Amino acid sequence: MKTLSPSEPNPDGSGQPEIGATGLSEVDRAIDAHYDDLSAGQRRAIDRLLADTRYGAVVSAPQLADAIGVSESTITRAAQTLGFTGFPDLQRHLRARFVAPVHDRLAPLEAEAAETESLARHVMLDDAARIREMAEDLAPEDIEAVVEALVGARRVLVFGERGSHGLALMLVMGLRLVLPDARLITQHAGDGPDQLLGLESDDVVVAVSFRRVDRMTVNVLRHARSVGATAIALTDHRSSPAARAADLTLIARTGILRLMPSFAPGASLVNAILEEVAVRTQPGVAARLRDAEDLWTKFGSYAEN
Question: How many angstroms separate the CA atoms of 266 and 270, rounded?
Answer without folding.
Answer: 6
